[in-house]
């Protein structure tokens, strides 16, 4: 395994802008009196080369947070900056192109186009961008995720864990500034989940990627450098160098608190 | 292009099967109608009789109008119901032209043997000079000499068969009179059936329309070209007749061609337009459904960086890959359909047998082009949602469907609804044949409304219909089905729309017909009050028959009924209607035909030739009342303006226009009575009277009043059949589309079914749930479809018959049962297929 960065050194690139920065981001669903605030003022900066897990009880706004940060959704107010550049005001087309080249995605499921081979799926972002397709790099990435032999297979012929590993390779093909992962291990067994998390960790350590991962699994969160806790649309705390037990304890406390407000939290 | 579309089509052809089938069928229908339309436009008949006469002069076979339309002067034409003839005086004028070697008048009329000569078949009577047309160069018969007055030349084969030889006497009846003739000679057989030739002057009188001939065939002098000859002839006729050369001579020979072309153009054009719209409608619906089912795929593409444009292009490319292949395959069944349809039209006498189906490239190109355009439109419409949405919405929406359709959609739906209502009101003012086509337009409008408002309507229907299911009668499966259908209103709408389409199309077309048929039968039953009806096994009864019948002891009155047609103008449309030419004393007409006079008096009919009685609803649509003059084209195109002396109730099925026989007899091809209606004097013995009536002519048949209806209106018979075929074609198409859509929606639920089974639902319960859902779909579809059909039918039925639509319970039940069975089968079979896979595979399967 390649060299490992100091986990503590998340503020290492202090000179440059953070990989992703949120300034007073709010997001409301619906309008008027019936509007539901999914995010109520989130301020946050994540350094390059960091691995951050985002946790929170159901309805805490984790998914909305991820979608706003990744340019999949637009905040109601506030700003999102990617590598110092504001993306909140970009047109849908500019935003799409930005996602294509500077952001990688790994979803819980349905990551791959069933009609394309594994290799073609990895190359999909470049294909959509109309760029030259870097097959050698795709092949290298597939080797990194342990699927060098499976490039010509179809997604349907792979297991769920293997499919997620293909999705990671695809997320990395454009050397994005940030990789967003939404419950990437949600549909996997423990062993496959471990492999996928190891790969994300390695992407941070060996390739200098920045990873933001939404999860509800304390074990998955413990692979990150830092865990951010969300409740009712706001950041309510963080944990550096997390271990599964302390993450689980914090979650218990948050869930209990949220339970007290049941009916208010959406 | 980035090749995603191609990869998609190649990798998962199964998910395109639904769209493929819809495109294929659409192309088939368009090809079939296109081929009929093209045949109607290009139809021609090779001249046989006039093959050696380069120029033929005849009457114009169309009634024509011109009016100021939106694009300047527009014109309309309508085929005349009888042959349009030329003045015989023109013959001499044409013959006087320097380039003309001979101008031969041509006449044909039916001739029947009377009494002793009964062994002869029905003959075509001709003038002897016309014999030169088919036997060039000979002006004498094969045997014997040319006929003088009181003589005939008989065709050899017919004479032999009847054991007749020159010198024998025959008794012959023609429209213009009967008489005894000596056979002066025998002639060779004719291509178009056995003939008998009379001296020219005699023939003109016997034809029933002295002073006119069917056509004048012109032969040139040596060295005169056809165009030069035609030019000279045109000068001679001076616009009083049509001058035909080339294949146009065939149309003169076969006057039914004009009407046949009208039928073909009507089917191919009007019905074809509706069918094409239906096909496009179905194709768009199916493709939109197929694309909607792949929402997750597009959401993922959006998230990883596909622009809205790229999604649209991918979907458009898929359409362009799919449509031409599907359409090309659809051309074959389309041609088969056209062939069958055309064959039937020929068999039923709607199109002359000499015409052949014209299978050109144009209909096929139109079919392929329309399919590609429809597929592109469908792709564009369906791609708007996945392309426009933000990817986060897309990811969310893929799982949960949107709550309600957009405002634009609702507004458009309501507009279509209003349009349908307005059009239905308009259709009420039309007559039978036009009503069917307008009705289809009305149905199309309502269908569009259903498609647009589908999710709302579906939710409404299933909420109501689902109540009993939820109430536990149907158990777990039933309540699941009720919940599913309510929650998935959009999916449900896709399944319901085609069922609505089947019901609405079939219901409207079939029940318009049953309504007309019922009203006609009812009218005939009430109107025909004659004690005896004298009919004929041959072409008809000569005028003298009615007079002779009146003299039979025990007969109080005898009225001859000559059936013909007329053309009238209503607004800027030309329509044709049935005319009864009545002989005898019109005051006695109510004794044999009780028409239910509303205004005026029938006894005034015949006070002069210039009188007419009209069916009340026809009078209304013409905007005339008793005392007014009404412009009409008689059967041969002669324009008349008779005075309306009465209007009557029971025209539909009986005859919508009543005129004195004398006024129409000279304007029909064969002035023979279809029937003679006889009322018996009080106390007369019906059997004796009937026997004496039957003795009047060897071809006569005698029946009671019920016999009047037997001679059904040929036009009505034909339009009834045409409507049934249209219903079958549209209904069949919609049925396949419905099955197609249902199968697609069921197969799309692999995951759901897998999850249900994982959570302990048994096969039986799954099947039960699907069955209940199918029943809900069928019931909702039938409900909406019947509502559309009813809304369309009521104004039309009111306009045609003045009563509510007549819907035979048996037919309606069959239609409903068909729709239910269709829904059950199209849901049940794919459900079985789904249940064959292991639940764990199905539950975790990617859609």
Put the structure in a nutshell.
The complex is a heterodimer of chains A (266) and B (847). Chain A has 266 residues and is an alpha/beta fold.
Structure commentary:
The complex is a heterodimer of chains A (about 270) and B (about 850). Chain A is α/β, with parallel strands linked by helices and about 270 residues long. Chain A has a single domain, classed as P-loop containing nucleotide triphosphate hydrolases (Rossmann fold, 3-Layer(aba) Sandwich). Chain A has 9 helices and 10 strands. Chain A has helices at about 60-70, 90-100, 120, 125-130, 135-145, 160-170, 190-205, 220, 245-260, and strands at about 20-30, 35-45, 50-55, 75-80, 85, 105, 180, 210-215, 225-230, 235-240. Chain A has a 6-stranded mixed sheet, with helices on both faces. In chain A, helix 5 (about 135-145) crosses helix 6 (about 160-170). Chain A is globular. Chain B has about 850 residues and is an alpha+beta fold. Chain B folds into 4 domains: about 1-45 and about 275-400, no CATH class; about 85-255, no CATH class; about 455-520 and about 710-845, no CATH class; about 530-705, no CATH class. Helices cover about 55% and strands about 15% of the residues of chain B. Chain B is built from 27 helices and 26 strands. In chain B, helix 1 (about 5-10) crosses helix 11 and helix 2 packs antiparallel against helix 12. The longest helix of chain B has about 40 residues, at about 430-475. Chain B is elongated, with a radius of gyration of 33 Å. Classes of the chains: A alpha/beta (about 270), B alpha+beta (about 850). The interface between A and B is medium-sized, with 33 and 28 residues.
């Amino acid at each position: 395994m390649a060299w490992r960065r100091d986990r503590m050194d998340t503020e290492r690139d202090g000179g440059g802008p953070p990989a992703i920065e949120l300034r007073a981001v709010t997001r409301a669903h619906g309008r008027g009196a019936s509007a539901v605030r999914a995010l109520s003022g989130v301020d946050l900066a994540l350094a390059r080369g960091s691995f951050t897990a985002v946790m929170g009880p159901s309805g805490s706004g984790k998914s909305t947070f991820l979608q706003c940060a990744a340019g999949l959704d637009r905040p109601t107010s506030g700003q999102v900056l990617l590598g110092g550049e504001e993306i909140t005001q970009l047109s849908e087309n500019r935003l799409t192109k930005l996602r294509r080249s500077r952001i990688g995605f790994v979803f819980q499921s349905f990551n791959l186009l069933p009609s394309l081979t594994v290799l073609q799926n990895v190359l999909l972002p470049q294909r959509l961008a109309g760029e030259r397709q870097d097959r050698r790099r795709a092949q290298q990435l597939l080797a990194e995720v342990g699927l060098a032999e499976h490039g010509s297979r179809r997604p349907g012929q792979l297991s769920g864990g293997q499919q997620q590993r293909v999705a990671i390779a695809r997320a990395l093909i454009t050397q994005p500034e940030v990789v967003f992962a939404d419950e990437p291990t949600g549909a996997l067994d423990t062993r496959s989940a471990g492999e996928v998390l190891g790969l994300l960790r390695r992407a941070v350590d060996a390739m200098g990627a920045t990873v933001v991962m939404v999860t509800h699994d304390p074990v998955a969160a413990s692979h990150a450098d830092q865990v951010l806790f969300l409740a009712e649309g706001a950041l309510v705390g963080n944990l550096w160098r997390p271990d599964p037990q302390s993450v689980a304890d914090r979650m218990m406390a948050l869930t209990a608190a949220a339970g007290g407000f049941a009916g208010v939290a959406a | 292009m980035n090749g995603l579309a191609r990869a998609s089509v190649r990798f998962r052809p199964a998910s395109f099967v639904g769209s493929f089938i819809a495109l294929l069928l659409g192309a088939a229908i368009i090809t079939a109608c296109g081929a009929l339309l093209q045949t109607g436009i290009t139809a021609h008949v090779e001249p046989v009789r006039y093959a050696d006469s380069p120029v033929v002069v005849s009457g114009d076979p169309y009634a024509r109008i011109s009016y100021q339309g939106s694009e300047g002067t527009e014109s309309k034409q309508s085929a005349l119901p009888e042959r349009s003839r030329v003045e015989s005086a023109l013959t001499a004028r044409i013959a006087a032209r320097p380039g003309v070697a001979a101008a031969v008048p041509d006449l044909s009329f039916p001739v029947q043997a009377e009494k002793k000569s009964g062994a002869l078949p029905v003959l075509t009577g001709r003038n002897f000079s016309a014999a030169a047309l088919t036997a060039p160069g000979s002006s004498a018969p094969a045997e014997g000499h040319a006929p003088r007055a009181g003589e005939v030349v008989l065709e050899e084969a017919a004479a032999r068969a009847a054991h007749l030889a020159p010198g024998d006497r025959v008794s012959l009846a023609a429209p213009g009179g009967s008489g005894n003739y000596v056979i002066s000679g025998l002639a060779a057989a004719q291509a178009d059936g056995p003939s008998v030739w009379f001296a020219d002057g005699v023939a003109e009188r016997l034809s029933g329309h002295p002073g006119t001939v069917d056509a004048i065939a012109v032969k040139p002098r040596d060295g005169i070209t056809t165009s030069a000859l035609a030019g000279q002839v045109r000068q001679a006729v001076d616009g009083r007749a049509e001058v035909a050369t080339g294949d146009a001579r065939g149309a003169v020979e076969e006057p039914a061609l004009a009407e046949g072309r009208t039928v073909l153009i009507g089917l191919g054009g009007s019905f074809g337009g509706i069918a094409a719209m239906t096909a496009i409608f179905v194709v768009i619906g199916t493709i939109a459904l197929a694309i909607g089912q792949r929402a997750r795929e597009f959401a993922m593409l959006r998230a990883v960086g596909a622009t809205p444009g790229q999604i649209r292009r991918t979907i458009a490319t898929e359409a362009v890959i799919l449509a031409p292949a599907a359409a090309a395959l659809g051309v074959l069944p389309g041609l088969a359909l056209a062939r069958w349809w055309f064959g039937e039209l020929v068999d039923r006498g709607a199109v002359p047998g000499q015409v052949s189906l014209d299978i050109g490239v144009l209909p096929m190109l139109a079919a392929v082009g329309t399919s590609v355009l429809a597929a592109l439109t469908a792709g564009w419409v369906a791609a708007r949602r996945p392309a426009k949405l933000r990817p986060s919405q897309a990811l969310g929406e893929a799982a949960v469907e949107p709550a309600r359709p957009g405002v634009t959609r609702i507004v458009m739906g309501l507009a279509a609804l209003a349009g349908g209502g307005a059009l239905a009101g308009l259709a009420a003012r039309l007559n039978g044949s036009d009503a069917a086509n307008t009705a289809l337009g009305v149905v199309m409008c309502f269908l569009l409304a259903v498609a647009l408002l589908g999710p709302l309507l579906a939710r409404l229907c299933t909420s109501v219909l689902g109540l009993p299911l939820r109430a536990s009668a149907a158990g777990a499966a039933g309540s699941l089905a009720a919940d599913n259908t309510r929650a998935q209103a959009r999916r449900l709408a896709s399944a319901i729309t085609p069922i609505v389409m089947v019901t609405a199309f079939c219901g409207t077309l079939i029940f318009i017909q049953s309504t007309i048929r019922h009203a006609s039968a009812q009218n005939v039953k009430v109107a025909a009050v004659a004690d005896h009806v004298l009919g004929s096994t041959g072409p008809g009864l000569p005028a003298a028959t009615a007079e002779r019948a009146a003299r039979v002891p025990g007969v109080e009155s005898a009225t001859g009924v000559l059936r013909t047609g007329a053309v009238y103008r209503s607004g800027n449309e030309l329509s044709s209607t049935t005319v009864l030419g009545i002989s005898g004393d019109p005051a006695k007409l109510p004794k044999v035909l009780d028409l239910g006079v509303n205004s005026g008096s029938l006894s005034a009919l015949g006070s002069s030739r210039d009188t007419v009685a009209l069916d009340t609803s026809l009078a209304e649509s013409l905007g005339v009342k008793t005392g007014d003059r009404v412009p009409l084209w008689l059967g041969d195109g002669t324009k008349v303006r008779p005075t309306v002396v009465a209007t009557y109730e029971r025209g539909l099925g009986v005859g919508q226009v009543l005129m004195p026989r004398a006024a129409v007899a000279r304007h029909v091809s064969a002035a023979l009575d279809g029937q003679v209606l006889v009322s018996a004097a009080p106390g007369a013995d019906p059997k004796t009277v009937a026997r004496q009536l039957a003795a009047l002519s060897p071809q006569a048949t005698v029946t009671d009043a019920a016999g009047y209806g037997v001679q059904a209106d040929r036009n009505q018979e034909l339009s009834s059949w045409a409507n049934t075929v249209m219903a079958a074609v549209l209904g069949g198409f919609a049925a396949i589309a419905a099955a197609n859509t249902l199968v697609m929606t069921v197969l799309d639920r692999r995951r759901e079914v897998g999850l249900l089974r994982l959570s302990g639902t048994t096969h039986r319960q799954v099947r039960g749930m699907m069955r209940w859902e199918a029943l809900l779909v069928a019931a909702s579809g039938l409900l909406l479809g019947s509502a559309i059909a009813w809304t369309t039918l009521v104004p039309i039925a009111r306009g045609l018959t003045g009563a509510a639509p007549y819907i035979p319970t048996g037919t309606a039940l069959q239609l409903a049962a068909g729709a239910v069975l269709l829904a059950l089968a199209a849901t049940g079979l794919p459900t079985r297929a789904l249940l064959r896979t292991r639940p764990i595979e199905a539950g975790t399967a990617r859609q």
